Amino acid sequence: MHQATSWRSACSLVLGIAIVIALPAAGWAHGIVGKRFFPTTIVVEDSFVSDEAGIAVGHIRDPHALETEIEMEITKRLTPNLAIGLGGTRMILRPRGEEGHHEEEGHHEGSPDTLHGWANPEFMLRYQFIRDPLRELAATVALNVSPGGVGGKTVGRLSGTTVSPAIQIGKGFGDLPDWADWLKPIAVTTSLGFDLRTNRNDREEDAQHAFAWGVSVMYSIPYLQSFVKDVGLSWPFNRMFPVVEFNGETMISGPEKGSHTAFANPGLVWAGRYFELAVSAQVPLNDTSGDRVGVLGMVHFFLDDIAPDIFTWTPFHGVLGPQTLPR
Fold it and tell me: What top-level branch of life does the organism fall under (predicted)?
């Protein structure tokens, strides 16, 4: 009984803390340009530099395995427009059917057939070169480098280094004419780039370069209520963003040259002052992408609002402070 009471007390404490930090607040952190707040989405990279950390989980069943990926990422501003970052992905593979019985001695945890391991890490450099408040327009160039041969062999790490240049653009439609008021809460983000691999062997996945793309379309309930019309939605619904993301890649070299993958990811983002929650489905759009629907989830923390004096310090510009909308 005592243990049960302690457990309930601990749960109540955690729930209480969560409610407190999730309460409505005047400020919005992270991706802000003009009156527009761009929430971080699960699949498509946003077009801002910021002090943030996030965990995204993807779970999908393909013909060969049940795959769970846990991605962790942290980024830090060095100047108002330049940021660096570090990311890692923990992979859990549960092989299915006859092809799944390739257990590797010494590399499994839990179920005998379950394989665990880290993918190669990823180092990021991002520079924001457009932030236009009137047009609600932001753009960033990014360079990600994933050194080969660092991750676990059991989860199929790439032996070669992957270099990924990309450009990300975000556009809100608050500058539409007044007759289109109900369309003003819409915003679009896009990410276009390449995955260029320095292969060291003849494995197909090590030898292929790819063009990667992503587009998101979102509707901002906060923008609707603050700048178009207050429709009376209260917390927590007044902080929601219905969103549909599309992403995929096209192989531009190697034995699968010309093949395409494409996914639609309908979901919902909820953004508080200190963190975001997001969930979406992952729907394959062609045979190459598979035939099973996956589930994606994300928790994202706004470090610049959680501890502004610590996380917004920069070596060249002092303490930048959190990014918030004008009050």
Answer: Bacteria
